[in-house]
Amino acid sequence: MPCGLFFETYQKDESIFPTLWLKVWMIALGLFLLTFPFFSQTVSDWLGINVLNLFNLIFIYIVGAHGLNLLTGYTGQISLGHGAFMGVGAYTAGILANLGWPFWLALPAAGLMAAAVGMIFGIPSLRLRGLYLAIATLAAQFILDYAMRNWSSLTGGSSGLIVPAASIGSLTFDNDFNFYFLALGFAVLATMYLKNITRTRTGRAFVAVRDRYLSAEVIGVNLFKYRIMSFGISSFMVGIAGGLWAYYITIISDEHFTMWLSVQYLAMIIVGGLGSVLGSIYGVVFMVTLPELLRLPAEALTNVYPDIFVIFSSLREMVFGIIVIIFLIFEPDGLAARWHTVRAYWKLWPFSY
Predict the structure, then answer these.
(1) Which residue ranges does UniProt annotate as crossing the membrane (predicted)?
(2) What does the alpha-carbon distance between residue 81 and residue 312 come to, in Å, rounded to a whole number?
(3) What pLDDT digit, counting tens, does each position of 245-260 carry?
(4) 229: Cβ–Cβ under 8 A, 6 or more apart, which residues?
(5) Phi-psi group of 173: left, alpha or beta (phi > 0 → left; psi -120 to 50 → alpha; rest → beta)
(6) CA-CA 20 to 30 A from 25: which of 10, 90, 214, 222?
């Protein structure tokens, strides 16, 4: 009976899927995700919610959460402006789509624009760290929020901006079913990219900047280069998420990209696990499905307490904050760390010692 995983080469130690069991699980997960839309209607009828819409939101948020986790979890740079950076990507994609740009060209442009804006606001990272950098990125949130709301000739202001549905050739992603496969593809690409960049020289430099930035600088790591690069890559990914969001809901306004969205993104990676690829995914799944799970008992009690939806809406932010605090106290490393603990226990069971 195996009592652990032991590798004889560095290649096997660094492989993404080191065991046959893990490969089988990943193949099973891939088949489930590819076939899920075909029986999703049954699940939706049973739960009383549109599960395809829920999955599409999860996939879009995963792309952005991976970006923020790269910046905050791997490089140690706190950002409270990623909600606005997502808005930059969404508006760029929407404006270019209305100018006739195809989806496959407008979406990368949205990411590049968000990356450029993120790198500009990331320049203070050379001098500032911790809470001071958080305040600097918070200023970015307010400035961009003001621009999105008041630059009406470009963004449509409070009236919003209508975005045509995404299309590639003759295939149009104008419903939940078609968009599911598009969003799934981008979520998988973002996950693979984050997993691989953390295994490269660049990824190790990010971690060195996070853990001991003075020591990293002494051994030759260019702090300014890697901090700005981290801001750029992170903002690019969240800009892609913003572009997907714009193409999905087809109408965007400044109310979608407020400070609340930046806090939600930060909560996702804290709850899921900072500096962990799985942490981003777990955090997004938890934070997106939590409101829906809380809504189910509220609907069941509607006949008994007619005003419970009003009470629930006013308490939702409070419940959200309490859950984040509970995670910080009892599981500061997030859901990913809890999952590793559970998996390690069963891997060695019944001879855990």
Answers:
(1) 20-39, 51-71, 78-97, 103-123, 130-148, 177-194, 231-253, 265-288, 308-330
(2) 28
(3) 999 998 888 888 888 8
(4) 202
(5) beta
(6) 10
Helix, strand, or coil (residue 150): helix
State mean pLDDT over 73-78.
88
Residues making up the chain, counted from first to last = 353
Q: 173 φ, ψ to 5°?
A: -100, 65
Q: Which amino acid is at 70?
A: L
Q: What would the two tokens of residue 272 be?
A: 């899921």
Q: Residues near 141 by Cβ (< 8 Å), separated by ≥ 6? A: 80, 81, 83, 84, 259, 262
CB 234 within 8 A of CB 67: yes
Location of structure tokens 């973002």: 190
Distance CA 235, CA 114 (A): 5
The helix-helix angle for 277-300 and 308-330 (nearest 10°) equals 150
Per-residue pLDDT tens digits for 138-192: 888 888 888 888 888 888 877 888 999 888 888 888 889 999 999 999 999 999 9
Read off the tokens for 159: 């009236």
* Structural tokens at position 328: 């910080």
The tokens for 107 are: 């979406």
| Cα 200–chain centre separation | 21
Q: Is the peptide bond before 350 cis (omega within 30 degrees of 0)?
A: yes
Instruction: For the chain, give the longest Cα–Cα distance.
Output: 68
185 touches 55 (CB < 8 A): no
Joined together, the tokens standing for residue 282 give 């777990």
